[in-house]
């Protein structure tokens, strides 16, 4: 963010005494010029006026961008260096100030355009940063349209079922899964929800979820069986039943102490490193072709805790993806 | 809290675009009218001027009440719907502004009146929300008087022994267990303390606790043996030696990162979901007949982290209790 | 908020050692039953998804309600006791989760119903609590419809002109005045804006405001000439040119240090007591018949500073109104 | 606070690169050894469990002590160097954990002992740091006993009248003036209250204040007439009617934006520098012989804003007192 | 900060539903390309490891840059539109991580280069954003070298004298004025300090300041005489005695309630709008040729209060400068 | 901190109603008088201007000192009473305001003096409280000089490798290990780093670390293998290859949710109680002869979470050391 002009003497420039070998994500993920081939592109979807409770998730894409300078591209935990991968910042989908249906249309069409433009890049994969969870409905629709004829699986990390009826409040952050089921974009049997938690959902929607054939895992199950084993089961099933997988991460799946910056999280939620390991693993999965990250509200954050956690989720996923690209592990 | 009047058109009312199937704890736990039969009643005890260090725990009952709208009555983790259970808000015990002994008398007598009034409800169980830990002494006394002739067991989640001598400072949040032992209301052999932690207690009181025959488990033991196994041991013993069990939860047993809103918590404490599981299990136990929750100081909270955690403790206990009422699991 | 049930002994009740003569606004402003005559009614309009920048102003009505217990109804500064005046809480206008135009329609119709229902009360006056500033457009329209044939004057306390074009973003908190001018509900010559501040507006809209014949006073003028004298000029003009006056207070007119809880305020703004004195005076004015208060975002507040300041604005206005009712001063 | 041991080489010591001419209040105000003559002594009274609403004012004395290192003893505004004056820290009055009446007794007796011990110092003056406002009642009583036979005047900076009845809640921070009137220690005609503010008092107590002959000035009067002129009037009257003046400063007289750290302040209160100038002037007054400062709650502070403001009040008073000692201005 | 790529459809771009006439400072102040003529250039000096107390003032330049999107370039208070003026962001002076003398050398040389490069622009004026106050010493030296042979006047807004001796701690934020006097760059008689405040300075340095012939005005004088009249006096003298004026603004001159984000501010300081008016006026002065702004610590800020206040200072100065360029007022 | 003078009556003193058996660390760890034999001494090193990113770690020693009153000396978790051990506060190493190399020299020489002075105490062990991590380089050098001829092992808890090159920025908190390797004070084969985490290091330095023969364990390994087993491996190796072990704890090894108060921590880090157990165990190790604790920035803390966690680390280490002194376990 600092800037650009460098005097011949080098006395005026943008770095403040930095180390020549130091290398930040902010230096690595540069804006996309609309032409360069890329393996992954970050797309911001700054919509949160569709949130049931007040949310500044519209500020999440810029908050995450500004956090890049706190991270390096080397994943010491898995010994993966992201640097050689071309990850670019595609920018934000344009939103309207007061017309929420038009915002959702823009997501559908904007993502569609992006898929078209990047269709020539053999291994392109989008990282979509919300916004609230309402964006997942048009985002998955655009994904499904682009991959027409393919069966789409959905892996959802979430405290909530997100299957509220659409009649009462329209498409909000409480309805994305319902919207996708009702429009036939995904089938209930291809939806796997992980992290569903107590006192955050109503029985009526648990019933709906069951009727639709959705498989869900509560936090209690995550504690008892381990997220790793649950993921194995999910992937085992999905890899046999669908062609492509879309991963949607509602950050409220995390424990409130680790993620204060969201309208939704509750005490007793998932621990950060469990989620990091999970998305790292999903990054390695061949059929996983898109990830979105929603409901990060930077205005509710404490320090930069939630924003950095969200950024770490994206990087962990990219780390797994890098392993996949390298044909490895 | 919003309100009441509804125009015939429905345009003016208290809900803001809510979903018709959505159902919050704030809609479920209504005030008690003094007559309706209930399975559980929430009683506030807004006393914290008896706290050794400054505490706004007197504000905890109202803080928890205002958090009900953030929770639903369905416990997805254990697949228990609380809605059919009649849980009512009995109100607060009246406190005096400057006369602490009179406050403790009011608790003793107020709880006594409540036990009398509710004696006709076969399965009534009180959830007492402090206030600081000094309230546990008169509260258990009222419980013991009501159940005269029965041996009372005490399960205490706490970082501290709470057995300070009564001569130096009178009955404060550092003395409740001492008060109960000295008055003969409970015997040391029937007291089980879980979560005792390093650098939060003095040796002299460890000695006292041992002399009195109290059994205690440190956080180190909780880490090593697991809370589940410890609880099994405690219940195995208590179920054979006492008639009724009173559970007292000092929230400072939780890790400081998960519960900033208390004068007492320290780093390295219990994790939220461990406590949730523990009280859920205790809710199922036939002999458990009362629970109190103390030392939540909403003024020290970070966001709503501590208040929501406290509310989750109450709901988790109710969830176990619902299973008990259903004769189940 | 605490509650209701009182044991015969009085030991369980809702007051915590209070003084019998103490008397809070929370005890004075009770919910309206739909029938009782009232001199003033508080209406919440919990809409802020129409805000350009993220805003939790939808939470303002409940935040102000919960602050009533921090205030008494006696205005010592002006020696006015509000207690005898019947001020009631009418509740909130019902909002839709995602359909902003329908929300604005609900305001128009809901306020219309309220004006009809209260038409029989000779001196009824509404205090409308937003929400963001977009609510002022339908609110003034309902006011104008109810007082059809009367010329309406508008006194606006605001850092901004609020005359953005409606084509680009639809009716948001940046457009209310434009909306009212374009729909012919008020004339530019009857609009007076006080507190317009540097680096918060663009030249293009200053030009529009001038073309429309709006009179505006910058903070620089407020400092130089004094708010009292400016108000005298405004009232002198308006009292001769209009029949009724609607006052709209955008809290961002206040200095950022006094009002952190709003998306809009800037350093160098109005000081709290200047605004209190101004609305007190407007309360006394015979032609002033409605007041709204907008853009209070409780999520951005520091402590309760902004919420209490907003509540004080409402009470100060009521204080002036009480003097008017008493035919006084 | 750092410490003491200095190696011969000077490499280990308590200063971190400080300037040899720099000189902090923490180096100037040292603990009293019980013998040294002093012109002023700071006494902490760490009692706030007598506060109506929860308060950590008991932590104020230590908070102010720890802020001394942020201040120097030179008052550039009035060109007064406090350094030559012997101001010592006398320590805290011992409080009881749960027996509030005994705390008040300790204040009465402890201050009595201090007055006796310091009676030999011709110009000794105490600066009493609360604690909540309940401490003023025993403190003024001790003052009056020590100066038996002298008429005592009281100048009170406060948002509230503090004359609640003593029957309902006993001696709390809402009752100190009532307590002093009822016990005949001061007469109503000798009490002057400055800063009384709207929506913070009830009419019934305004009536009581008037009946007792107390003179009060509202914030509205402070704004209109200026604090300087009001003080002149007060001093003109008091200097003719009493022998000695006790000044009590309830920090809630200040605007909430300038003093968040108190249970009581409201928007529209006094500005910091008005209060600084006022106490500076009172420091110069021959008859002023004691000052207390109450209701600073460091737990509600934002940064160190309130604590530093409170410390500045004490230093400003000492600055005026230094001028008095120098026989000057 | 958002970004760049725009799909032909316009669906992906950097604006989120903005108004076409809306125009932010972030869109107006663009990076300098090293060639374009400019009237003013913003230079960041991210050095604060030279601060006596810990400071993150090194983050101030980027914090102010990120706040530009909250401001428009139209100064409604003075009816000045800044848009036509070419103000560019020159970037940051390069700092060293641990070598403070080299940092100061870089400032001296870097500013020297900038003055050389911009010497061809007839009316170029730098706005230097620190960093802590130590940067003013090399910055004024570079200014003086560039304008060799000219008498330089210094107008300093500050709570402190900043004339600590250089022997004890080297050149820190407590020494800049001393450094300039001792090196003969400016004469004491040409230095004017405004806002010097009580309990923030020691007597020894007051004496030094007097010996050097510096003129200083305390906050008490600012309150009594008004900042406007003081500035008139200062300018009257300086305009006759020097050729050029350098303005240095230490933000700690502001009241702690208005500027929490600095290591230095104290209660009772200057009010924001007083400072805005003062720098606006100085912007208009023909001899004023540089301004620096120091000691803004974004890590201590509350919300964005201090950062926005600092940005407003810069914009207010530019507003006066625009009037000067227009030959006006 | 409160103070000292006690009236014969005991009414004025430093304790506020405390319990006679209560006993705080603040009463136990008293200042060293320069003569008394001690088993452990706490040394503050208030240097953080050498930190790459802004840091107030210079305030950490005093922050930890002020937290002692929140802890008791009894470790209930391990049943160890620290009271009999003589632990003293040696004070701070003197720092220079702007000369960082001199600060490092002072550490080298100051620690050298301390080792000389305490050489007569057979079991003396220093606890060094930074400051940022740059202090470890001179501190280990002083340790090595004092123990000349002995092979020194280093156990480092850290998120980062801390082996940046020294050419680009000089000795900062990013270079201590590099400095020690390059100066030959320790050999790479004797350095063990635990807690290295993803996206916090660059590949180039991972390569350097490997070349130097350093052994490192990532957080991923800590999760998979357990810290206990890793420590066993490290100690098994070190106990056979070196004579003495120096432990350095960079608090940023902890999870950001548990330790907000540091410039470095990231999400997914170590949990507090893992670190407590680890240092407890190291305290018991015969060859461990010094510990430092760095990069605690109290200005970034949330409440006292980080400061209390840091204090708990020191106490846990002392607890293990007490067991060693007792020849036990």
UniProtKB/TrEMBL annotation, chains A, B, C, D, E, F:
InterPro entries assigned to the protein according to its UniProt record, in alphabetical order: Ureohydrolase, Ureohydrolase_dom_sf
Alphabetically ordered keywords of this record: Histidine metabolism, Hydrolase, Manganese, Metal-binding
GO biological-process terms attached to the record: L-histidine metabolic process; putrescine biosynthetic process from arginine, via agmatine
Residues binding Mn(2+): 133, 158, 160, 162, 250, 252
One annotated GO molecular function: agmatinase activity
Cofactor(s) needed: Mn(2+)
Signal peptide feature range: none
A Pfam family recorded for this sequence: Arginase
Co-factor binding details: Binds 2 manganese ions per subunit.
Family: Belongs to the arginase family.
Protein name, entry field: Formimidoylglutamase
Organism of derivation: Polycladomyces abyssicola
Lineage of origin: Bacteria, Bacillati, Bacillota, Bacilli, Bacillales
């Amino acid at each position: 963010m600092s800037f650009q002009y460098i005097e011949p003497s080098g006395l005026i420039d943008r770095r403040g005494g930095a180390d020549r070998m130091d290398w930040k994500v902010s230096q690595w993920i540069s804006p996309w010029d609309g032409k360069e081939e890329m393996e992954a592109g970050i797309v911001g979807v700054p919509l949160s006026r569709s949130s049931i409770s007040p949310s500044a998730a519209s500020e999440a894409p810029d908050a995450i961008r500004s956090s890049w300078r706190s991270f390096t591209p080397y994943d010491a935990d898995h010994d993966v260096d992201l640097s050689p991968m071309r990850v670019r910042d595609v920018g934000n989908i344009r939103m309207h100030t007061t017309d929420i249906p038009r915002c959702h249309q823009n997501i559908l069409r904007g993502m569609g355009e992006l898929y078209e433009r990047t269709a020539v890049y053999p291994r392109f994969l989008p990282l979509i940063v919300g916004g609230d969870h309402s964006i997942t409905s048009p985002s998955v629709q655009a994904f499904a349209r682009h991959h027409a004829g393919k069966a789409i699986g959905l892996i959802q990390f979430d405290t909530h079922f997100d299957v509220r009826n659409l009649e009462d409040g329209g498409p909000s952050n409480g309805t994305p899964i319902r919207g996708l089921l009702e429009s036939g974009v995904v089938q209930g049997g291809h939806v796997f929800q992980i992290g569903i938690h107590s006192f955050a959902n109503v029985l009526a929607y648990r019933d709906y979820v069951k009727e639709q054939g959705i498989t869900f895992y509560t936090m209690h199950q995550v504690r008892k069986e381990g997220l790793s084993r649950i993921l194995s089961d999910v992937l085992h099933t999905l890899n046999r039943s669908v062609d492509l997988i879309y991963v949607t991460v509602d950050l409220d799946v995390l424990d409130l102490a680790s993620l204060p910056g969201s309208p939704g999280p509750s005490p007793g939620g998932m621990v950060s490193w469990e989620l990091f390991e999970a998305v790292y693993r999903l990054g390695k999965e061949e059929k996983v072709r898109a990830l979105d990250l929603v409901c990060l509200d930077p205005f509710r954050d404490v320090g930069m805790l939630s924003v950095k956690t969200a950024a770490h989720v994206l990087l962990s996923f990219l780390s797994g993806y890098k392993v996949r690209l390298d044909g490895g592990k």
